[in-house]
Amino acid sequence: MKAAAVNVEVGTQFWLEDPDVAWIDGEVIEVNGNQIKVKCTSGKTVTAKVSSVYPKDAEASPCGVDDMTKLAYLHEPGVLQNLNSRYDINEIYTYTGNILIAVNPFRRFPHLYDTHMMEQYKGAEFGELSPHPFAVADAAYRIMINEGVSQSILVSGESGAGKTESTKLLMRYLAYVGGRAAAEGRTVEQQVLESNPVLEAFGNAKTVRNNNSSRFGKFVEIQFDQRGRISGAAIRTYLLERSRVCQISDPERNYHCFYMLCSAPPEDIERYKLGNPRTFHYLNQSNCFELDGMDDSKEYLATRRAMDVVGITSDEQDAIFRVLAAILHLGNIEFSEGKEIDSSIPKDEKSWFHLRTAAELFMCDVKALEDSLCKRIIVTRDEIITKSLDPEVAALSRDALAKTVYSRLFDWIVNKINNSIGQDPNSKFLIGVLDIYGFESFKTNSFEQFCINLTNEKLQQHFNQHVFKMEQEEYTKEEINWSYIEFIDNQDVLDLIEKLSQTIHLLSATGSTTLQQQLQALLETLNATEPHYIRCVKPNNLLKPGIFENINVLQQLRCGGVLEAIRISCAGYPTRRAFDEFVYRFGMLAPEVLEGRFASSKETYCFEPTQLICLTAGQIARHLYEKMRRQAASLKIQMHFRMYLARQAYKELSSSSITIQAGLRGMAARKELHFRWQTKSAIIIQADMEETKVQENAKLQLALQDMQVQLKETKAMLIKEQEAAKRAAEKAPVVREVPVIDIALMDKLTAENEKLKALVSSLETKIQETEKKYEETSRISEERLKKAVEAESKIIELSNSMQRLQEKLSNMESENQVLRQQALLKSPVKSLSEHLLIPITPSKHNLDNGQHDIEEPKEHQSAPPAIKDYVNSDRKLRRSFTERYNDDVDALIDCVVQNVGFSQGKPVAALTMYKFLLHWKSFEAEKTSVFDRLIQMIGSEIENSESNDHLAYWLSNMSTLLHLLQRSLKAAGAIPHQKPPPPTSLFGRMTQGFRSSVNLAIDGLNVVREVEAKYPALLFKQQLAAYVEKIYGIIRDDMKKDLTSLLSLYLIISVLLIICLQLKAPRIAKASVLRGRSSGNSTQTCHWQSIIDNLNNLLKTLQQNYVPKILIQKLFTQIFSFINVQLFNSLLLRRECCSFSNGEYVKSGLAELELWCAQANPEYVGTSWDELKHIRQAVGFLVLSVQQLYRICSQYWDDKYNTQSVSSSVLSSLRILMTEDSNNAVSGAFLLDDDSSIPFSVDDISSSVQDKSFSDIKPPKELIKSPAFQFLQE
Question: Are 122 and 138 in contact (CB under 8 A)?
């Protein structure tokens, strides 16, 4: 590459050739005609000719550029330095036009290849994001879809450069964008990816330069249908290194499969009669038997599993490994001279053992195998001649057989994989990925190495022609006058090989024919496709991270044609800039251009029709260097002027702050005085209220004691009345069949009952008066004195006492009712219980349909006919229990599927379902279908939902119902039951049924009750929790989708804003450019306002549906975290987002979001604002990692003032820190991950809902009308 002609002055920086590091930079300290003296950065001084040095870009970014066509000087040392700079910061991918250069890092970077990264590159323009194999694969896929042209991706490089890993990444991405859901079994793309372990086991081996080197070429054809979905695939293999089977050098290894087989399980070892690999001739030619980080026994099992995946049966696998074992045994057969001249036989018993074992594994005759090794059969026209072989030739015959068998086995495995995957005969186009080992030259090259190098020469010619063709098409498209570009063509080498083809045929007829056929088919396929290139580079021969050997890398760039492609580009117009960017950057150097008066020199630069500026090599750098001094002077003037402005602003702020501080301190003093007055008044009021409270409590205690005395007297009177009733019953006259009513006794009992009612009424009046006094006192006390805790606890105890009193009064009323019935229905012959229906407690049975059944009341055999007729007629009129229950469930579902709204801020549907299930004791049922029907109803409503309002309604209902179940349901055995004491009298036994019903009604006043839940209820609770999480996730993900489109629009606007502002520069005066910046404010505000509107709409929807506040908090926390991830990752992935203008743009948006958080209620937004910490502090550098800091600093560019924000010394320090920390895989992941988890639990929901507010909820009007749902009003 010829050095460019440049102006040489003292202080100019240049690149000089160096025998140790290839190229070294330095500064000119003396100029003597064509000789210059340079002070190198290494400290030594060198004298060189001007024609042998290359200029250095003094303003080059310390992190390099992602596309080397952007270099100011596109030459060999500039390319090498750019790759080295990017490799130091773990940027292993770099473009050279459309060619991707991949430098092997020898470490894992999982964050660069996950699904999130694939999503970023999907559909992105080539060059828009950082260089990546995904970008090459996506470009090939998009061209194929849009233009209907088959594509190919050629991955090349020497052994250990990472070709196989790059090929895997390409396959993964193509499977990602073109994959489809599997109908039966595994998809095509999955089988292609999972065939890699099998091919690596049988086709990869350890070489001097790579522990997992592919010893064959592979061309994977991925076929697509009209819709761009993968429909089939095929794997073509080339040039398997057969000689490795029989001959290896130290410290290399044979193919991996042999070592795996020797580490197989004991039963397989015994079956194949194997042992330690050191005992086999084909393996012990090298001292390397094991690899670091690779367990051959585990790899054997993994290969077996991979064979299962690609469709190789167990019998076929057994046959494969039998052949492998036979090859190993074949290699241990040694020969000695036979009885006849020039004959041979197996040397000893050991050789005979291996011969018999090989024949057994090959499933052939031992004698036939021996003859094939020790004899050669020559077939002539007249006869068949058998010729004996001497021991040396017999050994060669043995090796030839082993190589042929292994090669045929490898081809069979490939064909088996292709048959399993299946090809699509109707496919219209394909994408092929070529992975073939690169050009290598040794002191003694085998015929196979010669074939490999010939293939690489053919591919290199294809590469050169394609690069030249692309350059020619670019100039033709842009209507640029250009002359023919000469480049080094290797056609002479190929012609020479063709002339020697006859000799090659004599040496190896079969191998040469196979090579020509395979190579011809490969080139025909490549010529029929549009190629893309990935050049893999191995930075060092130690295979260790962090080491970049300049000479080694430079040699690979030369052999790989990368520098030749750069030279072709340099011969034309290599430096290219967008028209608006170029004019905005350099317009001040040519004012006539801004005014529309200019004349371009085609020799220096050229304006293209697509608004692209093409310049010859070094033009940008020369313009920059000529204006460096003027720029330095301008910066110094700006510095002093800004310092003056800052000093004036500081004085004004200082004076203003003193005035404001004085006013604030005075205000604070006045507030403190007012506070002290309030405190003193409050103390006085508290003392007065404490005394009043004590007096009121004393009065209440006296009233309570009076009521207790009256209660005791009433109870004593009731006892007397009961005894009198018993005596009257015993003295009653005996009359058969005709009941006798004692009118006098009835009048007496009625009068006494009236007295009791009056007494109870008076007690209730007193209780009501006492309650009113208590409520009034409590209200006054709470308003004036909130710290009176002891007095409040006493009031609570008093309230409990009154509640117990009410219970006792209800029980006494029930007892009076029983007494009256006993007096009226007294029989002279038999007791009352023998003639009346005996009430049986309803017993539950587990039916098949899961419903409850209640036994019918049984009647006594001697019951009177009238009573029997009544019972029979009642049974006919009543509907069955099951039918009523199903009707009630239908009515419930019909009601709740409608939006029944909210009452007192609580969802009506949730409480209605809870009361229904509680009333019918569904929670305690072993089997019931009601839960399944409710779950189906909920799922149907969610699936059919088309708006966040409907989803929020169900989220509110389901979370509330889940809370009620969380508080109510206890597993069996968790609730201690206290059995009531057995009744001691006949009266107590008769009234037991009445007491149970009264107690149920009283308990019903409390909405939430604990019940022993059976399995269906507990399962329903789990399903309900899952639906709450699902609805929450749907709302969150829908919001993320809306924000993704808006944030994507933000990226487009940020780029267009810069372009628009730059386009204004050529048309207006330079001074008006800054004023033009304000024109984008309305666009910015409008865009961020769209995001704010979405947040407002969502918050309003959630509030209107009374969604629990804990869920709203978590939802907005994750939404703001998502915004943080998207904005921050855009800074790390897109350089245009790291501009000054974009920083102001994002800053204005953050201000809008902060204002929204401040205006929203904190109980709804919580800590959402804190989730934006990364993007908020991206300028302040407070929470970022070293990798994130360095990447933002190195990508930042000031598109407004053209200043450098971070000095080179700071960047150097960050670079050192990042290099030291680069071994940590976690720290290398500089991108943020989106959180899609469920950030709440059932307990969180339960703790955010208050039980006491459920008692005032009004049930649905539709259900209240039905008599079956009257329990909802209890």
Answer: yes
Q: Are 837 and 859 in contact (CB under 8 A)?
A: yes
| Average pLDDT, integer, range 183-209 | 79
- Which sequence positions are flagged as catalytic? 159-160, 164, 210, 213-214, 438, 440
Q: What is the pLDDT of residues 1026-1079, one digit of tens each?
A: 889 899 989 998 888 888 878 777 666 665 655 555 544 444 333 333 344 444
Average pLDDT over residues 566-589: 65
Percentage above 90 pLDDT, the chain: 23
For residue 646, what are its two tokens? 């800052």
- Tell me which residue has tokens 């021969």: 541
The mean predicted confidence, pLDDT, of the chain is 77
Q: How many other CB atoms are there within 10 angstroms of residue 352's CB atom?
A: 15
Cα torsion through 646, 648, 652, 654, rounded to 10 = 60
**pTM (predicted TM-score):** 0.56
Q: d(Cα 570, Cα 566) in Å, to the nearest integer?
A: 6
pLDDT computed for residue 1224 by the predictor:
52
* Other beta carbons less than 10 A from residue 1097's beta carbon: 14
- Highest mean pLDDT among 37-41, 1137-1141, 1162-1166 belongs to 37-41
- Model pLDDT for residues 671-684, shown as the tens digit of each residue: 888 888 888 888 88
Contact 220, 196 (CB under 8 A): no
CA–CA dist 1231, 396 (Å, integer): 58
Residues in CB range of 16: below 8 A, 6 or more apart = 23, 24, 25, 26, 38, 40, 46, 48, 52, 53
SS3 at position 346: strand
Smallest CA-to-CA distance from 843 within 860, 856, 861, 833 is with 856
Could you tell me the pLDDT band of residue 916, with boundaries at 50, 70 and 90?
Answer: confident
Selected residue with higher pLDDT from 536 and 1063:
536
Measured CA to CA, the distance from residue 168 to residue 182 in angstroms comes to 21
In DSSP terms, 39 is beta-bridged to: 27, 45
Contact 202, 255 (CB under 8 A): yes
Q: What is the pLDDT of residue 769?
A: 83
Name every residue whose Cβ is closer than 8 Å to that of residue 1117 and which is 6 or more positions away in sequence: 1166, 1167, 1168, 1171, 1239
Q: Are 57 and 77 in contact (CB under 8 A)?
A: no
Q: How far apart are CA 304 and CA 319, in angstroms?
A: 13
Q: Could you tell me what percentage of the chain is helix, strand and coil, using 3-state DSSP and rounding each to the nearest 5?
A: 60, 10, 30
pLDDT at residue 192 above 80? Answer: no
In Å, what is the CA distance from 1172 to each residue of 1167, 1182, 1230? 10, 13, 16
pLDDT confidence of residue 881: 65
Nearest to 961 by CA among 1025, 1033, 1029: 1025
Assess contact for 204 and 256: CB atoms under 8 A: yes
Report the candidate in 1206, 1208, 1209, 1189 with the shortest Cα–Cα distance to residue 1198.
1206
- Does residue 246 come out as left (phi exceeding 0), alpha (psi in the -120 to 50 range) or beta? alpha
The phi, psi pair for 74, rounded to 5°, reads -95, 85
Report residue 403 as tokens.
Answer: 């190589």
| CA–CA gap between residue 460 and residue 1055 (Å, rounded) | 38
Cα separation, 12 vs 650, in Å, equals: 42
Determine the pLDDT at residue 594.
58
**What kind and span of H or E run contains 531?**
strand 530-537
Q: Determine whether 371 is exposed, middle or buried from the number of CB atoms within 10 Å of its CB (0-12, 13-18, 19+).
A: middle
Q: What sign has the CA pseudo-torsion 660, 666, 668, 674? A: negative
Residue 968: how many CB atoms within 10 A of its CB?
19
pLDDT of residue 556: 87
Cα–Cα distance measured from residue 446 to residue 642, given in angstroms and rounded to the nearest whole number: 72
